[in-house]
Amino acid sequence: HQAQIFCLEQKIVKIAKQKLMHVANTAVQYPSDINCQTILEFNTQIIHILEQTGIGKGIKAGNNSVSAADQLNFAKDVVNLYDEHRHIVTLTIAEDECGHQHTVMEAEILLDGLIETQKKQYEAIAVSKPKSPSGIEWFDKMEAYKQHLL
Questions:
Q1: Contact 23, 49 (CB under 8 A)
Q2: What's residue 20's pLDDT?
Q3: Residue 107: is its pLDDT beyond 70?
C-alpha cells in the first residue's frame, strides 16, 4: 500500500514538474515582455498547477497544512540564494511623532558566501538520504517540502 502511494506521488510530482517547466520556459522565452502583470500571471499559473496536482493543497507540515503560495514563496527564497546580489543603501526622509524630519538609512549588505561551518552543513545535507536524519538539527526539523527544495 505504501509503495502504491509513493508511486502515485512520484507520478503527480513528475506531471507537476512538466507543467511547471512549461510555464517557466514560456516565461523566459520573451524576456523583454516580462513585467509586473506577466509575473503575476505566471505566479498564478504556478500556484494553480501546484493546487491542481495536490502538491500545494493539504500538504502537512506538523499539524498545519502548507498552501501552494507558501511553497512558492519559500522556493523563491531558495532561488534567491543563487542570485547575484549587491550592497544596497536606501535613504529616505521620515517624520517622527513630533513632526521633525530625519534622514533614515536602510542598508542591505551582501553576505559574501558561506562560512566554513555552513559549507560543511550543506555538504552533509547533500549526501544525506531523503526522509532520513542528516545530522544537521535545523535541517532535520524543517518541513519535508523545504528539505526537498534545499
A1: yes
A2: 76
A3: yes
Residue (of 70, 13, 72, 67) closest to 39 by Cα position: 72
Determine the straight-line distance between the first and last CA of the chain, rounded to whole angstroms: 29
C-alpha–C-alpha distance, residues 34 and 26, integer Å: 11
Task: Give the C-alpha separation, 135 to 128, whole Å.
Answer: 9
Phi and psi angles of residue 30, each rounded to the nearest 5 degrees, phi first: -125, 80
62-88 pLDDT, tens digit per residue, is 555 666 667 767 777 666 665 666 777
CB 56 within 8 A of CB 71: yes
pLDDT tens by residue, 129-138: 877 888 999 8
